[in-house]
Amino acid sequence: MGIEQTALHVADRLRELSAEFAGWRIGRGGSGQWWAVRGNDLVRTPDVEELRVRLHEFTAAGRGL
Fold first, then answer.
1. Which runs of E-coded beta strand occur in the chain?
2. CB neighbour list of residue 44: distance below 8 Å, 6 or more residues apart
3. Which residues make Cβ contacts (< 8 Å) with residue 52, sequence separation at least 6?
4. Do 26 and 35 meet the contact criterion of CB atoms below 8 Å apart?
5. 3-state class (DSSP) for residue 35
6. pTM for this one?
7. Which helix (H) or strand (E) holds 3?
8. Spatial CB neighbours of 57, under 8 Å, sequence gap ≥ 6
9. DSSP class of 31
10. Is residue 24 within 8 Å of 55, Cβ to Cβ?
11. CA distance 41 to 28
12. Which residues pair with 17 in a beta bridge?
């Protein structure tokens, strides 16, 4: 995958996650780590799908589920 394709793929994933998890600031650092922050909550992981799972856990815990 070329650099442009990689950048487009990352941008697509960021849009998906931002739409799915309103209130979280989500990004990908230069080290390849995906991260999300909301207030004092911080989640970092090298895998975007693990980030999604962990954000779902935070969301469920916040609702008392």
1. 25-28, 34-38, 41-45
2. 33, 34, 35
3. 17, 20
4. yes
5. strand
6. 0.83
7. helix 3-20
8. none
9. T
10. yes
11. 16
12. none
